[in-house]
Task: structure prediction
Amino acid sequence: MRKTVTETEPAEGLVQRILQQYSDRPRGWRVMSTPRGEMLVIGPESAFQLKLIPLNPFEFTGAGIEIPNPSGVLSSIKSTPEFGLRALSDDDVKGLFDALSDPQGSRLSLDSIIKRAPLTPDDLNSVRASHFLSGPVLTRPELGSLGPDFLKTQLSLDSAADDIFRKRYPLRAGMYM
Result:
């Protein structure tokens, strides 16, 4: 059961807060998404539930909430591999391609890459790597299936995201009415 949920707020500001917290402490993050634009981002100290509406491949709008002191279902999700940005060597990339074509014969273990310490976005410029692995991102059909609290919050976020979209982008929103 979740303890306290903050008020709904625009996703753009919430995502900036998530990125700042990730930059400060890149270990212990989990990310779950749905095909409907729902996201659950679990950090070391709090979690965030969002509804994102894509505007183009690089921009979005929407709404979200912060869940301080996550527990219950969120605690069980923390047993999954942690999300992060990891530098890959050319040998790692070759090993990943080999693993895709011959999973049993590959010497590369994806597990060994996932266990590497994640980088912060600021670290990306100082690391001498030409490839990076992002993830893992868990996927499920909808976040509401995690429990009644998630369903209630998701319905509220759906409505708030729609309101924000219609207010900020009335001409685009008009195409969907």
Summary: The two ends are 36 Å apart (CA to CA). The longest strand covers residues 46-56. The CA atoms of residues 144 and 151 lie 4 Å apart. The chain has six helices and eight strands.
